[in-house]
Amino acid sequence: MIDCDPGVDDALALLLALAAPGLDLRLVTTVAGNAPVAVCAANARRVLDLAQRPDIPVVAGAAGPIGGGAVPDAVVHGADGLAGLDLPPPSRPPDGADAPAALAAAMPATVVALGPLTNLAAAADRGVTPERLLVMGGAIGPGNTPSGAEYNFSVDPEAARRVLGRPVTLVPLDIARAALATEARIAAIAAAGAVGKRLAPMLEAYAEAERRESGCPGGMWPDAHAVAALVEPGLYAWREASIAVDGQGRTRFDWNGEGARVAVAVDEDGFFSLVARLLATL
């Protein structure tokens, strides 16, 4: 199951999960983040339509963080969350609006969380325990918000604190910053097949937005790394740690602690090769 807020890199992560021969995607739930939750749910259905998988349920979830409050704009993803990807409206309505209940009903399973962790925290309150939980979030070094936090955790710090209180595999923002999608890498993906070619304008627009907003010389695809780490964990170096999250979503890692398996390095070329190979099969 994937809980997400599509978002450019969420869309890419969904397609990688669909293409990976060892994975069986059964459910997608959405949360407010890169776009409002209804837009995220529509985007997830649009991406599944692109992959010709309208059979996979998409259930909407939390419209904002625990305790209320606004979700910060994620401007790098464009107005509709999928900048540059000209997809038609979804072929079907959402399959409900209670993501925690959908997650509970679908257990046991692996859950990959790619957005703010509000749905996962609510599911945990209902006693939902995934067989395995893989989270994209947090940052060892600088985050990508004004407070210094990584975006997902900054949206709902309380949810992040609750979810990280259980064993988790974590792919932090630093991994994406170490493997930037340059023009040459996007061109290689576009040349690998029809889906890669279709995605290229979105990936190029996203990379340009990253350059404009943060000076980053390429696009960061953090959510795609979360799926890649599930498919080929050997592409990453891992360390055990315990993680604390403050009130703004900033993370502190105790490398003498335990409870989280954290990705700390990535084989850049291996990652982009995997992306191209998987997308070519769709």
Q: Key terms for this structure?
A:
282 residues, alpha/beta, Inosine-uridine Nucleoside N-ribohydrolase, Chain A, 11 helices
> What's the CATH superfamily, by name?
Ribonucleoside hydrolase-like
Helix content: 25-40%
Q: Which CATH top level class fits?
A: Alpha Beta
Overall mean pLDDT stands at: 94
**Helical element count?**
11
Order of secondary-structure elements: EHEHEHEHEHHEHHHHEEEH
Please state roughly what percent of the residues sit in beta strands, choosing from under 5%, 5-15%, 15-25%, 25-35%, 35-45% or over 45%.
15-25%
Uncertain stretches: none
CATH domain fold name: Inosine-uridine Nucleoside N-ribohydrolase, Chain A
What's the CATH architecture name? Alpha-Beta Complex
Largest β sheet strand count, sense and barrel closure: 9 strands, mixed
Shape: globular
Termini separation? 19 Å
Number of β-strand runs: 9
Structural class: alpha/beta
- Rg computed from alpha carbons, rounded to a whole number of angstroms: 17 Å
In total, the number of domains comes to 1
Major beta sheet, strand line-up:
3-2-1-4-5-6-9-7-8
